[in-house]
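Q: What would this complex look like in 3D?
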Amino acid sequence: MNDKLNHLLFESSGRELRNIKFSRGTGAEVSKEEFRGVVAKIIFEIENGIAETLPEFGDKNRKTVDVKEVIARLN
Amino acid sequence: MRLIEHFSVYQKLPIKIDDIASFLIEAGYVEGVEFHPTAEDGTVLAGMLYHVRYKPPYVSGDGYSTAHIVYHTGLPEPVQRMICAKELLHIADSDEMVVRIQEDVNRLTTEMVIPPAAISDMNSLGIKTISDHAGMLRAAALLFPIEARDSLKPFYDKAMSAAEIAGIVDLPFAWVDFIMSDAWPGIYEQLISTGTKFCK
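A: Here is my prediction, written as structure tokens for the whole assembly.
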């Protein structure tokens, strides 16, 4: 297969693929070409600094609940 | 120590996605993690791990590795968390599970477009595709530590609702019901016992 995805993953100098994995979308009918096209678009945007990029997911300071305290309250 | 086991004793919930990323960096699985929220067609792709070693000509040595975690912003936040956890877990994939050559990428993208409901025989899929499909189970095991699950189980069996528990663990209700079911301990054991096959 000679498409944009293979070009981005295997024919670009200065980087080497270590691993790629996917979570499929919810569409009942998704073609392989459509799928590879979306993946290629996102990788192109990442590699060219166009994609939105965050250094963190953003939940570092999120409040937590201690399960032990929840259990103590319920008992 | 592998990820699911590391977080299995956490009592302060929800497990934070940023803590999982930090653990992977500190444990040496990757040098950097970047998150990419996307609004690209969510019917096609909900999330992705794109793990790369960069070797720019001006950098001496082996370069540096970055794991790019892509997730769809149209999904509810608990689902975004599961997708991110799943993709982060793949950073620690065993050598048998990694997809890094053209032939494997081609096979994976061919098999990923098959809707899960249409897969009549999981064994007909490649092991790397199975690892992708099983990823959500592993993500659930990571985000709902088994010790906390076991502590909450008696209260769930009496009157505590899935919604109340979902409020603690920040997972989708349906996943909470599944994890609190009597089937989960067996599934969890299987995930842990086969862990070395999937993770370094």
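A: To summarize the key features: Strands of chain B lie at 12-13, 32-38, 45-54, 64-72. Residues 15-193 of chain B form one domain.
Q: Very helpful, thank you.
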